[in-house]
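Today's session is about reading a structure prediction critically. Students often jump straight to the picture, but the first step is always the sequence itself: look for stretches that repeat, for charged clusters, for runs of hydrophobic residues. Only then move on to the predicted structure, which in these notes is written as discrete structure tokens rather than atom positions. Here is the chain we will use throughout the hour.
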Amino acid sequence: MVKSARDLVEEAKKEIQELSPEEVQQKIAKGEEFVLLDVRDQDEYRAGFIEGAKHVTRGMLEFSIENLVPNKEQEIVTYCAGGFRSALAAKVLKEMGYRHVASMAGGINAWKQKGFPVVKGHRFTEEQIERYSRHFLLPEVGEAGQAKLLNARVLLAGAGGLGSPAAYYLAASGVGTLGVVDADVVDITNLQRQILHTTPDIGKPKVVSAQERIKALNPDVKVVPYNVRLTADNIMDIIKDFDIVVDGCDNFPTRYLINDACVLAGKPLVHGSIFQFEGQATVFLPKEGPCYRCLYPSPPPAGLVPS
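Below is the predicted structure for this chain, in token form.
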């Protein structure tokens, strides 16, 4: 017997649980642990979605859900525009072994009619949709994650061996604002490792070379150059407008200065250091764990530090 789309939806609704928008809103308000899954198309999702919802188009559901929600005991509530695609999606999830699945009756249209809030998606340009298309496919990033990257502000202390690759990949990923602090000029001995700089840049301030290279890679990125050395007099003013600080400096006094400023300002600090083929990397979160000075209360004597 040939079945119509309506027949398939009616059959699905007989096999799944449906929740009203009010019931879903109450679960959110109570802080219950469940996955709210938006199965609409990309353009619908960008027009507005329920805050906290994960997104996968109905067409990609079977291929993406096990990466997005690996635990099949996890409770899932699907929704779409009117409750039809989400009912079919819930039925498929049950068939795939997800045990606690429901669909929101009436979809986001009913949700909005009840006066419940929606979040507007980031308005990507056509070029951005193409540039970041591979990020959109990653459940760990997606469009919401890319929007966060574009709105992020990261300060790089140093545009040398550590700061160069960090800046280059942050720019490639679409971090919207990159501050670069460095008082040095490009030297030919830098070029075998400091990938922000090229042979024609020899003699230029590193922040100028970095700005040119980053803008050539990704015009979305705003570069804020600081052609200065960080000191106790300027560091608090420089870091105040950034979300995260990346420490790529090459000396201990500056490293301790950056740490202390981040502790005072409550800024997350991404720390890295290298010597030949050895390296360290970690993240210091003020008030959530130790800082650099907690681990190393005082710098080593200058004569014992290899370079």
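Discussion point for the tutorial: The mean pLDDT is 93.
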